[in-house]
Amino acid sequence: MTNNSDQKPPDEKENKREFLRYLGVASTVGINFVASTFIGFAIGHWVLDKYLDTSPWFTIIFLLLGIAAGFKYLFRIASRGYDDKDGNSERGN
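Above: the chain sequence. Below: its structure as tokens.
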């Protein structure tokens, strides 16, 4: 008599694998959004405004650029996920 409690049906394993993949993508999007916003702020505030004495202009500009970069990544990942669901992915990435 074999113990089949450790073996899951293939459909359940595939669902779990897909869930973990989506969880990984979601966490990457969140981390990337925060990192790009912080990097934009840091460049504007601590690099440019500090040495050029133009406060707060470069801080505002580079903060907005960082937020835009975060949204760009978010939309790229969202469109890639949408293409994968439809099976119409024409991109190589």
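The mean pLDDT is 84.
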